[in-house]
Structures are given as structure tokens and as C-alpha cells.
């Protein structure tokens, strides 16, 4: 597989949200605005790239029976570092994403890529895979966030387009399910 | 390929991995401790200066805690030229979605200068109208003296216009402001000035 394909497959063919349908919890929970979706996507991408690289470089020396706990410890360490950094340098974003940052540890995308890809491939390939899947996730979250924000609060990336409130349901949980459902349909139609 | 899963192998691998990981986290903690403290202090300070009357001291370094029915509340005295001009009081109550915390600024005569919302988990689009800028809800408290302004929503016989469809949030907000008022009275009674510096 060419290096470029490693990246693009994460965005389209194996898009974690629309195709693999992993990591639904942060997808539904954090996308009440485009900025939140983008922030969450980038945070996950950061962890994904680092954990993929670390795991692919140590996978050879981990006994099979303790590989899952080892991966989780590595991922948790990176997430904690990320959490501290966000608290320090982007306190506002940290506040809105709140609980979902520590929850990246148990995001199935991160552990899934560690187990399915990073543990069997080279460090460089794993890093590229992390970038691809991360971008795919970020793209999905940003699009979903933008749509929900547009319909729900009549604004785009925090810029108010029309005065007034918008359709409230799209900011709330049911709106997340509705928007995500339609996006999946459209994405899969376009893909095939 | 992978090492054999013997007890010795597994124990050493996990120990090494946890050791390295904890070193990494420890390093990150040390590096970020100062910026995190700064960011937190900055947030508190900007909330204080948003609500308290004009001051020239450093209220967060003179902060003290007042107790009311078993709970501690933080009080930040605002001073101008060494003279006490008011207090910013951190108050909380439980709202519709969880804890609702406010920073209430009082002038020395007991009137409310301004109120800002420190944190809440109210429903977006409904209860979150308590945030300054999202609606005029908080504005109606400004300049009012709780002695002759009954801080209970109109539905319950008070003077406060509640947010439509968010009566519980509005009640919680009033509760928090009332708590702050009680604290304020305590501070005035005890002539508390805060840590003199």
C-alpha cells in the first residue's frame, strides 16, 4: 500500500465515524458546534498518532497476554499529557470538551488502531495511519458540528448568521443522532 | 515477534511500561503546573473584575472563606486605596443539570453591582440564558439592593422575571444570589476585611 493511500483510506474508505462507526460517544457528545467538533477531532488525532507510533515501536517486546493492558497504559499516558497541555494552553476549549478528553483513553478508535494496525506495522506506516484516521475523524466531527450549529443556533464557527435561536433540538442529543444518521446515508451513497 | 507470555516477561514488560508512562506524565505535570495555575487565577480574576466595583488591590490574594450552614464560600474583598468598596462572592446552588456557580459582586452599601456565571450545566438554548450576553436575565439584578428587591421568581411571589421554560434554572440562580447576600451580610456584621497586606 502506498504511503498516500495509508492517509486517504482513513478519510474515505475506512472513515472511523461514517464507515467503521467507532467512537460514537464523543462524536455525538461533543459536536454541538463546529469548533468543539474540530477541537475534539484534533485532540484525538494527536493521541492517535503518538500512541500508534509508540505502540508499533514496542509491540515486538510485549508478551501477547498483556498487550491490551500495555496499550491502554500507553494511551492513557498520552491522553493525560494532552489533558494537562489543554488545561494549560487552551483552557476555554478544555472547559467545553471537559469530560470527553479523559474519555479518549477508552475511545475504540485509538485502541482499535493500536490492535488492528500499529501492532503489526512499522512506525512510519503507523504514524501515517494515525494521521489518516485522525483526519477522517476530525473531518466527520467538524462537518457534523457545523451542521448542528447551523441548524441549532443559526451560526457557523461561532459567527452568528441570522438573529434568533435556530432549531433547538439539533443542539441537544436527539439532534446529534438525526444529523449523524443523515450524514452517514449521504456519505455512504457518495462513497459507493 | 512477541515475547513468550511467561510470568516474568509479563511482569517486567508491564512494570517498564508503567514506569516510563508515569515518568512522562510526571514531566508533563511539572511543565504545565504553572500555566494551569495562571489560567485558573486569570479566570477568577477576570470574573472578579467583571462583577466587583472598581478596585486597585489583588482580591484573590486577600480571599477568605465564609461558612454558611456547613458550606464554605469564597469571598474576595475589593478595595480602593485601602478602603473596602465591596465584595465579590463565589456562590453556588444546584440547578436543573447540576451545580450552578456564580460570582456575585456587591457594593459596600449592599446593592448588587453585577453577577457573572462561573460554571453551569444547564440545557443549551434554555437554561444557559443565565449567561451574561445570552439574555437580559442577569441584568435585572444589577443595582438592586436585596433588602427591597425580593430575589424569588415572580411565580413564587418575588420580584424576578424568570427565563421562559427555565423556571428551575431561574430559581437556582436566585438561590445562589440569595446565598451570596447572606454571606455578604455576615461579612459586613463581622467587619471582615480579608487578609490585610
Total of domains of chain A: 1
Outline the biggest β-sheet of chain B: 5 strands, antiparallel
Number of helices of chain A: 8
- Percent helix of chain B: 25-40%
What this model shows, in words?
- The complex is a heterodimer of chains A (192) and B (197).
- Chain A is mainly alpha-helical and 192 residues long.
- Chain A has one domain (3-187).
- Chain A has eight helices and two strands; from the N terminus they run αααααααββα.
- Chain A has helices at 3-11, 24-30, 34-58, 67-89, 91-97, 108-116, 123-153, 173-191; strands spanning 155-156, 159-160.
- A two-stranded antiparallel sheet of chain A has the order 1-2.
- Chain B has one domain.
- Chain B has helices at residues 7-51, 167-189; strands at 64-68, 71-80, 83-94, 99-107, 112-119.
- Chain B has a five-stranded antiparallel sheet, with helices on both faces.
- In chain B, a hairpin with a 2-residue loop joins strand 2 and strand 3 (83-94).
- The relative contact order of chain B is 0.13.
- The chains are: A mainly alpha (192), B alpha+beta (197).
Notable characteristics:
heterodimer; A: 192 residues; mainly alpha; two-stranded antiparallel ribbon; 8 helices; 2% strand; globular; B: 197 residues; alpha+beta; 2 helices; 22% strand
